[in-house]
Amino acid sequence: MNCVLQCLAKFPWKSDSSTKYTRNDLTREFFRVMNQLSDGFVDDVSYSAIDPQMLRDEVAKFSNRFATYQQQDAHELLLCLLGELNKALKSFQLEKPIEVNPIQDLLNGKFRNSIRFECKHDIFNDQPFYSVTMAIPEDYCRRGSVTINEIIESFTREDMMEAMCLSCGGELKKCSIQTEFLRFPPVLILHIQRFRITDSRKLDTVLRYPLTGLRFRDSSGKVFDYDLIGACHHFGSMHGGHYIAEVKNRRSNKWLSCSDSSVNEINLESRKDCRGLLSSDSVCILFYELSA
């Protein structure tokens, strides 16, 4: 949980969030922790640690697996936390429609899954997202290295196949399938699947990703550039290990490595390769913010 919270604390939350959303136990504890972290813990290594126990207890009410002290998947925790926060904040909007839902405001993206048949009976499914989960293509697993752009290209690539067309009575028809981004949010969370269930192993493929200038285009061709504000790293195996966070101080622009209560300043600029990319075989969640 600590790793996820340290990254979430770097989001551009509204300054009054900790006093605005107090009518629900979960939202009150979440924004209290966000306020405490932004007030110093990850911004100044001299500050003492905070204890998110009360927030963990609130999250555990929605999923028992987070009630124990055993390691849990950081991305599953992130989705659970954001999903329940969004539900609570939507209930506030019903009571007071002018309220802004900060989860929707910062994270509400949308992509489209399309199946285009040769018979023209196309199928489109638009899906909102808070984070995008992408697999490392098998070819790159064997190669041992992949860039985030190569993963994105694989995620959005148009593939040809045969599928049943219900409009044609269930006949097999040639078709193309593709995922396209329709809307990009102010904060983009990219989850890289390192835990592979099929053979119960963790992928140690080196991921290369930019510190600034991660570029996307939506379906209309509009450009969106993103800069990194945080990253979750996992060290260990599928059966155990440890998470740490690397986060950017919004005030000083310095980068910090956060391992539970231990916080140390790091120099990510010095870790760039000749193409200006960072490399890691442990990073599993990337948090990018839309460039100003």
Would you kindly provide a written description of the structure presented here, covering whatever features stand out?
The strands form 4 sheets. Strands 3, 7, 11, 12, 13, 14, 15 and 17 form an 8-stranded mixed β-sheet that branches. A 4-stranded antiparallel β-sheet has the order 2-1-6-5, with no helix packed on it. Strands 4-10-16 form a 3-stranded mixed β-sheet. The protein starts with a helix and ends with a strand. By secondary structure, it is of the alpha+beta class. The chain contains 8 helices and 17 strands. α3 packs antiparallel against α4 (53-60). The longest helix is centred in the first third of the chain and has 22 residues, at 74-95. It is globular and about 65 Å long.
Summarize this structure briefly.
With 292 residues, this protein is of the alpha+beta class. The chain has helices at residues 2-8, 17-20, 25-41, 53-60, 74-95, 102-107, 138-143, 148-156, and strands spanning 109-117, 123-129, 131-135, 145-147, 159-165, 171-183, 187-193, 195-196, 201-202, 206-210, 214-217, 223-237, 240-248, 255-259, 262-266, 277-280, 283-290.
